[in-house]
Design a protein that fits this description.
With about 150 residues, the protein is mainly alpha-helical. It has 2 domains: about 60 residues; about 80 residues, Fumarase/aspartase (C-terminal domain) (Ribonucleotide Reductase Protein R1, domain 1). It has 9 helices and no strands. The radius of gyration is 24 Å and the shape is elongated. The relative contact order is 0.10.
């Protein structure tokens, strides 16, 4: 995929963000009673929104060119059992397992993580059996974490 549309969107959003940051910094503060810089700065607001529109159009164009292959995505996802380190660490912390991060870091760094490695680790945890059972049900495909909640914030 040629990333030109995404690069165009990124560049235009960078310009828009810089302009909006300046507007947010400049407009609330007036140095003098007769400070005419506000009107000059306000005229640039349309330009900032224009850069946003160009960016969104470019992003939409780039996304429309993508060809999604669900079979390949599913296969890639199911090869990545290290994804489950996040929910495992969360449950370990909930039950007061010390050094949860370090233990998972040691498990996942520099080694191939597969279903057996993850499930053996879960079985060996000193947490309630009900929590183990829930963790053992997780797969890279069915673990979505807070994805739904995060998308609803948008």
């Amino acid at each position: 995929v040629n990333p030109i549309d995404f690069e165009n969107a990124e560049g235009n959003l960078g310009l828009a963000n810089a302009m909006f940051a300046h507007l947010a910094e400049k407009l609330p503060v007036s140095r003098f009673q007769r400070d005419l810089t506000d009107s000059t700065v306000l005229r640039a607001m349309g330009t900032a929104f224009g850069h946003c529109m160009i960016a969104w159009t470019s992003l939409e164009k780039g996304l429309s060119k993508l060809e999604i292959n669900p079979t390949v995505i599913k296969a890639d996802l199911n090869k990545n059992w290290a994804l489950l380190a996040e929910p495992i660490q969360t449950v370990m912390r909930r039950y007061g397992v010390e050094n949860a991060y370090e233990k998972l870091k040691e498990l996942t760094r520099g080694t191939e993580i597969n279903q057996k490695v993850i499930q053996d680790f879960i079985v060996g945890l000193n947490i309630p059996n009900q929590a183990k059972s829930k963790l053992l049900e997780l797969t890279p495909e069915n673990y979505i974490g807070y994805a739904i909640e995060q998308t609803e914030l948008i």
